[in-house]
Amino acid sequence: MIGLVHSELLKLRTLRTWWIAGTAMAGVALLTAVWNSWQASAFLKPFDDYLEGAILTPREEMSAEQLESMSRLWETQSDVGRIAGTVYTSGQTLGLLLAGVLAILLVTNEYQHRTLTATFLAAPRRGRVVAAKLVAVVTASVALWLIATVAGLAVGAVFLTSQGVGLRLGDPDVVFAMLLNLAAYIVWGVFGFGLGVLIRSQTAATVTATALYFLTSVVVAFGFQVVHDLVLEEDWVLQAQVLLPGVASQVMTTPGELFAGAPAQWTGGVVLIAYGLLAGLAGTVLLRRRDVA
């Protein structure tokens, strides 16, 4: 079994895409962490200073409702634990998709280059081959998370220390955010594995994963909002967005509410894990039973 895992990891390392993905992950995580830190710096100021820099209207001309709304926003966003968690998990928007795409490539490359038959001939017990592939997928996903986390920690350490608020690495909310981020990387990797088995075409599987990730969290989410505003003004209409994989991952990894009335973070985690388990199970069954050429 160990030899099979090493073989699958070797296949992954020989993919040029892996090195491109790792480099892109580091660069995007660094830039995103810097951007998140810059945005957070405004909320670490006293409320009066934040208000002066955030609006163009003089404070004396603002209504009580506007002031109250700005005050609530400042109180929510100025939580140091929330800020640290956001900076330390920078880059997840690209990282989760990369985890899924790398898993797709690990499977579909075997179909594209017709090496899967040789793999099964060398290791006739397909279940062990599938398990080795899943271990490689999880390892790659954890590696991407680690690259992004190291970049976020590097930028976050400089930023938070300069603000005099400490690193907050012992804060339970910060640790929880980082672990949720890790879980999301792993689940999207397993989801990509299942998708790669279901859709043998490398291009089609990658496009499908990208569409499920971005379109379900943007286009379809907008549709839910339209239905809620114009057809059925019920909270469950907006909350039902969490059933979409792209929205579920955002709900899972976003501290607080992603949108008004959004379900708790654990709800997004449950939905995303369910997708990962279903995709992983379907991929395992198909890869064990399907004839390969």
Q: What does this protein look like?
A:
- It is globular, with a radius of gyration of 22 Å.
- The protein contains 13 helices and no strands.
- α2 packs antiparallel against α5 and α6 packs antiparallel against α10.
- It is an all-alpha fold.
- The chain has one domain.
- The longest helix is centred in the middle third of the chain and has 37 residues.
> Ends: how far apart?
24 Å
Most strands sheet? none
**Strand portion:** under 5%
Task: List the helices and strands in order.
Answer: HHHHHHHHHHHHH
Number of helices: 13
Q: Can you count the beta strands?
A: 0
Task: Give the radius of gyration.
Answer: 22 Å
Measured as a percent range, the helix fraction is over 70%
Average pLDDT, rounded to a whole number, is: 78
Task: Tell me the number of structural domains.
Answer: 1
Overall shape: globular
Q: Structural class, from secondary structure content?
A: mainly alpha
Low-confidence stretches: none
